[in-house]
Amino acid sequence: AILFGTVFAAVHHAEVIAEEIGEPFGTLVLTLAVTIIEVALITTIMLGDKPQPALARDTVFAVVMIVCNGLVGLCIFIGGLHYREQDFQVSGANLYLSVLFVLATITLIMPNYTLSTPGPVYSAMQLGFVDVVTLVLYGVFLYIQTMRHRDYFVVESANRDAATKKSSSAVLALSIPLLLVS
Q1: What's the CA gap between 85 and 27, in Å, rounded?
Q2: Residue 17: inside a domain, yes or no?
Q3: Domain boundaries, position 118
């Protein structure tokens, strides 16, 4: 229960900061917060009594499946009920899914077909290459999202200002250190 509350508190504080920063950088704050939470949870489980070498890979696969199927479907369903219709940028969604599919293939599928080491794992050299490719790919994605094609990820609407609620500066000042602590 404490872990559950801590995770939701961290996401709430990230959301407060993200609303103040605005798009697309607010999305990056939320993504970073959730990624740090997930890595911490996976690390905690892996440091348990029994060694489970496939746990990190299985967990990442489960997250990809939950995000691509469950979370997106749930958001579309609830958003459809609430707003009756939703806008999204097809170009941004295509770019995001392209990067996600390449990263998932490199990290989850390709180790099954390597011959340099027994089992579904990379050798040290292959793992270094995957690290570099992953960082470059994510860097290019961030560049496109925040600079080159920012309009693919930010929906400008006429009633956006009326719907967007800004937090007070006191709440924002409190959320930043609380996010860092949690």
Answers
A1: 22
A2: no
A3: 87-157
For residue 80, the model assigns a pLDDT of: 86
Identify residue 178 by its one-letter amino acid code: L
Q: Are 24 and 145 in contact (CB under 8 A)?
A: yes
Q: For the chain, how many structural domains are there in total?
A: 1
Rounded-to-integer distance, Cα 103 and Cα 112, Å: 15
**Residue 148 is assigned to a structural domain of this protein:** yes
10-residue mean pLDDT profile of the chain (182 residues): values are 78 84 81 81 76 74 80 83 80 83 86 82 87 90 85 63 60 72 68
State the DSSP string of 94-157. Answer: HHHHHHHHHHHIIIIIGGGG--SSSSS---HHHHHHHHHHHHHHHHHHHHIIIIITGGGT----
